[in-house]
Amino acid sequence: MTQANYLWSPAAPASLPVQGTDARFPVTRIFCVGRNYHAHAVEMGRPVDKATAQPFYFTKSATTLVESGATVPYPTGTSNYHFEMELVVAIGQSGFRVSEADALGLIYGYAAGLDMTRRDLQLVARDQGRPWDLGKDFEKSAVCAEIIPVGNLGVLTQGAIALQVNGETKQSSDLDKLIWNIPELLADLSKYYHLQPGDLIYTGTPEGVGAVKVGDVITGQVEGVNSVALTIGAAE
Description:
236 residues; mainly beta; eight-stranded mixed beta sheet; five-stranded mixed beta sheet; 4 helices
């Protein structure tokens, strides 16, 4: 096979550590579910009626990924930088138009994650009917802990999810409050995409989101999975 003659060396693929092994999980795409807890949808001024609504998604580039424990600079262009604590599902098998019953077969593992958000830019875009990219898809905005292989965890249906800023609890809920659960999300998303090994799905955040400032330390946990941490550094 002829070796490609790139103009410069391509960047190494984004990846995450995997618990119990020295192998890494290569990340291809990051899907995020919007408004997937009722109380958070209400606090954002957009209540959700599951009987008449469908899940909706936005994406983050794999280049936005940063590992738990990092210090990231306060991002440019915002004065309202928010945390969102989430359960992350890591896909390990290809799937297209999968049934809810077959969803477990796609899951490689889980992780605790943070969907960091330039809230002011997101809300301006939302209210003007524009894409959310400036508010969501920016450098170092997808924080994720190591991947925990699914093992005996199966499809998670319950478990505490919580977040603290400087030790003070800001978010506290349970996975059983997801509007669309994991099988429903995988079945729905796979109607529109061929899900692939390396895909990450951020499943949504509970109520209590809020702003952070330089020097703040964020910690978060998903019961039975793991924890995530992030320190907010000075702006560049």
